[in-house]
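BUG: 3D viewer hangs when loading the predicted structure for this chain

Environment: internal workstation, default settings.
Expected: structure renders.
Actual: progress bar stalls at 90%.

Input used:
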Amino acid sequence: MTSWKCSKCGYEVETKNQGPPEECPSCKEKCVFIDNTCYTPDCGQTGTDQKI
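Structure tokens produced before the viewer hung:
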């Protein structure tokens, strides 16, 4: 799973084998989504990088 974060409102969404959505489900805007998936063990069980 890949975790994406909306650059406008901070909404996080996970997708499987695809890119981010065209429109943010939360703010209904066409936003830039940032990949905040964590690939290192120090992220714990969340799988997302909370620093992003």
